[in-house]
Design goal:
By secondary structure, this protein is of the alpha+beta class. It is built from 3 helices and 6 strands. The longest helix is centred in the middle third of the chain and has 15 residues. GO terms for molecular function: acyltransferase activity, transferring groups other than amino-acyl groups. This is GNAT family N-acetyltransferase.
Length: 139
């Protein structure tokens, strides 16, 4: 998530931030003889009662192309719907190395938008959002 981005443009959460009660952090794992292998992860943060943010989506290099990111994304969007969010937004990189992530999000209905939350315009960032169909009943 840091590839080619200056430190001031890196918005991934560190381990301490992922442990915050306001963050839902999920992993995708595959059982094996030596325990479960981590395939991917992602997080959902609440910006307000109607708006969630996807954070720290990552797929292990050896697990790419196996649907791991789609599964993690689908699970987190399900959590967002259960919470009654009206939309989910994200920030990802603008560099070529982030093109697969941007394509994944676009395939799932995300469209580019302006900065949201505390973000500001940044040439290293692409902001995307997905409106979630109603009804929006807070769980």
């Amino acid at each position: 998530m840091r590839a080619g981005s200056p430190a001031c443009s890196v918005h991934a959460l560190d381990v301490t931030a992922l442990l915050a009660p306001s963050i839902t952090f999920v992993t995708a794992r595959e059982p094996g003889p030596d325990g479960a292998t981590l395939l991917g992860c992602g997080a959902l943060s609440e910006l307000d009662a109607h708006h969630g943010e996807l954070k720290s989506m990552r797929t292990a290099t050896g697990a790419r192309g196996r649907g791991v990111a789609t599964a993690v994304l689908g699970h987190l969007l399900g959590v967002a719907r259960e919470r009654g969010y009206e939309r989910v937004s994200l920030e990802t990189g603008s560099q070529d190395s982030f093109a697969p992530a941007r394509r994944l999000y676009a395939r799932h209905g995300f469209v580019e938008c302006g900065p949201f939350g505390s973000y500001v315009e940044d040439p290293y960032s692409v902001f995307m959002t997905l409106p979630l169909p109603g009804p929006h009943v807070r769980a």
